[in-house]
Write a structure and sequence with these properties.
heterodimer, A: ABC transporter transmembrane region fold, Rossmann fold, elongated, B: 572 residues, alpha/beta, 12 strands
């Protein structure tokens, strides 16, 4: 058991603010727990009293026994009821708290800056919201049900034992810690074995992942035997260290049981000897024996619960980290809702970088008049998406400003800015739902005619019609059954339906076949008519027709101008352009 | 499941001795209440201090012997379960490695990895626990009943009622809750799905201002989950209170009937204490048994999943090797080949028919899904033809010894895969006996020499898992070098220069062309990459739309024209 640090203490305080809403249930739960624990301890005493009334042939006090047994029956029923109610309270508190935390975390996700989301792996964030919260729930539930009852049981047992016989209590209290000591000693000494086991497992999983994941390469180069040899070497080591870890840790139970047996024997001897001198009755001895059997249990449970709770707090801490992350810059108080955007976009002295040490965009000036096309070109990975991030205000500029129709986008509501843009990205994202749900994302109240018209304009209608349930075909997140090109057409249809005044388009590179690509080009062309468009471009025809070309390299904008100007300049763009035609 | 048991046969001794020692320990546990009864009846009643001490020591001795038995049992159980699973792991890994590509595609890599790791671990804990408890728990339950009967039949009758009742409650609630937990898991998966979707689609969701409706969707699923969890929790919370009532009411009846028997002189006071102790032992063991059954059920499910993989038959490897081929035999020939992938409805290749002579360079072009990769994957026999024949040196690849066949082929796949290790180790996959000179020659050809030389340790530079410390283009060039180290007769480049800029791509193709006697297949989406091939195969939707040189195709093949002009617009 480690000492709880201040960090854990802080986390605990935060957890309590969530639990406070259910304080009434919490109080009830504690009352029921106390009732359960004390009554559970009272039953062995009653049984002992009953046994004392059964002395021998003809010496049985049936009337007395009957009274006691009736009492036991009533108490047992009350205990069981209290226990069940306690469980219900704990269930409600735990699952509601968890629901609240999860909801808060998800709400937070919606206002987190993109910087956080881009900077953390999806798996990491998902595991905070799902696995960590789950683990936390388990720990919390277990903590509630066992920690409090455990403490009361220990105190109660102690009290009851004292009330029966002081010296035998002394024997139990002296011997019991041995079992705890043994358990913690074994846990400590096996820790390194478990660590070695999990490291070896990790090593093996990495190999499995690498080799099975790339089996084609393994088979193509005929490396099966070599790989199996490496696998077996790790497997052999794993066998050895697993055996050690499992065996040595499994000594815990027999050992503590052995200590308990000693306690039992000691109580038996001490009790029997006291009985000889008349200090204790046989019935009391039997109560004592059942206590001796149980006394160590809550100790072991509590030490388990404490570890579990520490773990739960660590998990809760990770969730709270997410919840407390600084949200995106809130909307300006007087932020305007621009509608009827004409589509003039101006970037004035824009500077931006993801990390302060690495300046990226500096002194970017650009004015796109309504209806103009801006092509962003450059080799892959040169930071073309950065421009999209700034235009859509996924990220804020470090200095300078971006204006739409003369209004700084930081003075607009995010909603109205983003409604003004239609965005089709290359990594197509579709949500789980029907095709219809996906097309109507920007306009949930669209009529059937509008939907079909948009799909037709995007050249998506014909393939949608051929799907098993047409527009009602259900697709999952990765749109598994659709081809890359079809997914892109759907994304275009989605924008076609609302046709905002400004567009952000990301041309596909190589993963789409020529014919679909031509369709996408046509759809893009139709969409761009009369709209201010920013296109991450790969195709010469798109680039040549653009009013402004931004040439990017390594995150910087190195050239700007139209096709002719840039060719005449004979710089990077001219080079890039010419290289496409040398064989 | 049954077939897996073969792997435990080397641990027969351990698998028998483990449970046996556990049972011996349980027997001792059952003796304890009897000894205690003797202390009460003979020691206390007869005022016999030495007897009490003797019996007390006997209790300690029983405890000690129990400890020894138990540790012995744990050892055998651990040894058998770990050894058993080590063997399964080996067998499963070897089996997965021998599976064909079609099987792998069908099953998916991530499933295989789960089978190899968490499933086997589950089986291991299942076997371990089963060896320890499967005999012990029922033995204690029934043993306690039998011991009770030996004390007194009439007083012990209540055991025959309590045990079935407890079993019904414990197992009933368990059986009820297992499928419920699956429902909870499904609800949780849904919540997880929405969370994930909101991360992967964050740009689109915000672009369409969908934040609020997503919050609403999450709230609904989250509520569903909470409601389900509470419902299941409420029922499982019944287990402890109900069993508590049964055992204690049983004890009440036991005391009453015991009192009657003592009054009649049939049994003693100590016997009643013993009976009460036995009753409380039963509950503990039944709960253990129920938990064991859950673990074992899970382990059996995992074992069955492992078994399913092992049951996939591995096709017998052909052993044929072609005789010396003369120059008139095509090195690669497709004779009316059709290919349908397992589980796919449509053919991916239809009636492919072409010949390639030794030393030729063949370009394959077409849209995505047109079957380009299928063609080159059939040459090393990765996927067998559903109809027709693929021949290498005049021999059907279905009869060709795959190792001999693949040793002649240098394959560069679309996805550039490198393994954790040094550059040298990675290149050695192509040819374990390659000298440094061979490796440098290959790096030169693959246009990779420059960046390898720039690294501090050259060939001995470390590559991280998945080649994460290299750029896409560097990875592609190294995978090409790995194939060239083989000095293959046939080099296959499956769209493997896509991350290279045009100039490097051109240099690479020039260097490859200079290697004598090597037949080269280049799959590409770029017309410029295949323009100068001796033969270009144009694929469209699984059909060959044209075969010929660039000039021939540009003159007479619509699909080729369409592709070419989309990349090189006419007016330029």
């Amino acid at each position: 058991m480690k000492k709880p640090s201040t960090k854990q203490f802080n986390t605990l305080k935060k957890v309590l603010t969530y639990i406070r809403r259910y304080w009434f249930l919490l109080v009830l739960s504690l009352i029921f727990a106390a009732v359960t624990a004390l009554l559970t301890l009272y039953v062995p005493i009653l049984i002992g009293q009953a046994v004392d009334l059964i002395l021998g042939p003809g010496k049985v006090d049936f009337a007395g026994i009957f009274v006691i047994l009736k009492k036991i029956a009533v108490i047992v029923v009350i205990t069981a009821a209290a226990q069940w109610l306690m469980n219900l309270c704990n269930n409600t508190i735990t699952y509601n708290t968890v629901r609240d935390i999860r909801r808060t975390a998800f709400d937070k996700l919606q206002i987190l800056p993109l910087k956080y989301i881009d900077g953390h792996s999806y798996g990491d964030v998902v595991s905070r919201v799902i696995a960590d919260v789950d683990q936390f729930a388990d720990g919390l539930l277990m903590g509630f049900t066992q920690l409090f009852t455990g403490v009361i049981t220990i105190l109660g047992t102690f009290g009851f034992m004292l009330s029966i016989n002081v010296s035998i209590t002394f024997v139990v209290v002296l011997l019991t810690p041995i079992s705890l000591f043994v358990a913690s000693f074994i846990a400590k000494s096996t820790f390194s074995m478990f660590k070695l086991q999990s490291e070896t497992r990790g090593e093996q999983t990495a190999l499995i992942d690498e080799m099975i994941g790339n089996q084609k390469v393994v088979q193509a180069f005929g490396q099966e035997d070599e790989v199996l040899e490496r696998f077996d070497e790790i497997n052999g080591r794993l066998e050895k260290c697993s055996l050690r870890a499992i065996f040595f840790s499994s000594i815990t139970n027999p050992s503590t049981r052995f200590v308990n047996n000693i306690v039992y024997a000691a109580v038996g001897i001490a009790g029997a000897l006291s009985a000889l001198s008349g200090n204790i009755s046989v019935g009391q001895l039997s109560s004592f024996l059942s206590y001796a059997n149980q006394f160590t249990k809550p100790f072991n449970e509590i030490s388990g619960v404490v570890t579990e709770l520490q773990n739960a707090l660590a998990c809760a801490g990770r969730v709270f980290e997410l919840i407390e992350e600084t949200p995106q810059v809130p909307e300006a108080k007087n932020a305007v809702d621009l509608d009827n955007i004409s589509g003039e976009v101006a970037l004035n002295d824009v500077a931006f970088s993801y990390v302060p040490e690495q300046p990226l965009i500096e002194n970017l000036n650009l004015t796109a008049k309504p209806g103009q096309r801006v092509a962003i070109v450059g080799p892959t990975g040169c930071g073309k998406t950065t421009i999209i991030n700034l235009l859509m205000r996924f990220y804020d500029v470090n200095s300078g400003s971006i204006q739409v129709d003369g209004t700084d986008i930081r003075q607009m509501t995010r909603g109205s800015l983003r409604t003004g843009y239609g965005m089709v990205l290359q990594d197509t994202w579709l949500k789980t739902g029907t095709i219809r749900d996906n097309i109507t994302m920007g306009k949930p109240d669209a009529t059937e005619e509008e939907i079909i018209a948009a799909a037709k304009a995007a050249h998506a209608h014909s393939f949608i019609r051929r799907l098993p349930q047409g527009y009602d075909t259900f697709i999952t997140e990765d749109g598994a059954s659709l081809s890359q090109g079809q997914k892109q057409l759907l994304c275009i249809a989605r924008v076609m339906l609302c046709l905002p005044p400004m567009l952000i388009l990301d041309e596909a590179t190589s993963s789409i076949d020529t014919r679909t690509e031509i369709k996408i080009q046509q759809a893009f062309g139709r969409m761009m008519e009369g709209r201010t468009s920013f296109i991450v471009a790969h195709r010469l025809s798109t680039i040549r027709e653009a009013d402004i070309i931004l040439v990017m390299k390594d995150g910087h904008i190195i050239e700007q101008g139209n096709h002719k100007e840039l060719l005449a300049k004979g710089g990077f763009y001219a080079n890039l352009y010419n290289s496409q035609f040398s064989a | 499941m049954k077939k897996l048991l073969v792997y435990i046969k080397d641990y027969k001794k351990e698998s028998i001795l483990g449970p046996l020692f556990k049972m011996l320990e349980a027997t001792l546990d059952l003796l304890v209440p009897l000894v205690m009864a003797a202390i009460i009846d003979k020691g206390i009643a007869a005022n016999d201090t030495p007897y009490i001490l003797r019996m007390g020591l006997l209790l300690v001795f029983l405890g000690f012997v129990g400890l020894v038995f138990s540790i012995t049992a744990q050892y055998f159980a651990a040894k058998a379960s770990v050894g058993f699973c080590t063997k399964i792991r080996h067998a499963l890994f070897a089996h997965i490695q021998s599976l064909s590509f079609s099987e792998m595609d069908k099953l998916g890599t991530s499933t295989m990895i789960t089978r190899m790791t968490s499933d086997i671990n589950q089986v291991q804990s299942g076997v371990n626990l089963a060896l320890r408890l499967f005999l012990r728990s029922p033995f204690v339950v029934f043993g306690a009943m039998i011991v009770a009967f030996t004390i007194d039949v009439k007083a012990a009758v209540i055991f025959t009622i309590v045990i079935p009742l407890l079993s019904i409650v414990v197992f009933g609630i368990m059986l009820w809750s297992i499928p419920q937990y699956k429902r909870v898991q499904a609800a949780l998966d849904k919540v997880l799905g929405i969370t994930r979707e909101n991360l992967t689609g964050v740009r689109v969701i915000r672009a369409f201002n969908k934040e609020e409706s997503e919050v609403g969707r999450f709230k609904l699923s989250n509520e569903d989950l909470t409601r389900l969890q509470q419902f299941v929790g409420r029922v499982s919370a019944l287990m402890n209170p109900v069993t508590y009532i049964i055992v204690n009411i049983g004890t009440v009846i036991l005391i009453y009937s015991g009192a009657l028997r003592v009054d009649g002189g049939a049994i003693s006071q100590g016997d009643v204490v013993a009976l009460v102790n036995l009753m409380s032992q039963i509950l503990v063991e039944l709960v253990k048994l129920a938990n064991l059954i859950i673990t074992v059920t899970k382990a059996v499910a995992c074992a069955n999943r492992i078994q399913n993989v092992l049951d996939i038959p591995v096709a017998e490897k052909p052993t044929g090797v072609p005789g010396a081929a003369d120059d008139s035999t095509p090195i690669v020939e497709f004779r009316h080949v059709n290919l349908t992938y397992a589980g796919a409805g449509d053919e991916s290749l239809t009636d492919s028919d072409f010949k390639v002579m030794k030393g030729q360079t063949v370009g394959i072009i077409g849209g995505t899904g047109s079957g380009k990769s299928s063609v080159v994957n059939m040459i090393p026999g990765f996927y067998p033809a559903t109809a027709g024949q693929v021949l290498v040196d005049g021999m059907d690849v279905a009869e060709y010894d795959p190792e001999a066949l693949r040793s002649r082929i240098g394959m560069v796949l679309q996805k550039a895969v490198l393994f954790k290790g040094t550059i040298r180790e990675n290149l050695a996959w192509g040819n374990p006996d390659a000298s440094d000179e061979d490796m440098y020659r290959a790096l030169d050809i693959a246009q990779a020499r420059e960046f390898v030389d720039k690294k501090d340790k050259g060939l001995d530079s470390e590559i991280a898992q998945g080649g994460k410390n290299l750029s896409g283009g560097q990875k592609q060039r190294l995978t090409i070098a790995r194939a060239i180290v083989r000095k293959p007769d046939i080099l296959i480049l499956d769209d493997s220069a896509s991350a290279l800029d045009f100039a490097t791509d051109a240099k690479l193709r020039k260097a490859i062309r200079e290697i004598d006697d090597m037949t080269v297949f280049i799959v590409s989406q770029r017309a410029s990459s295949i323009q100068y091939a001796d033969q270009i195969i144009v694929l469209d939707d699984g059909q060959i739309a044209g075969i010929g040189t660039h000039d021939e195709l540009l003159a007479g093949c619509d699909v080729y024209q369409e592709i070419y002009y989309s990349q090189f617009p006419k007016e330029v």
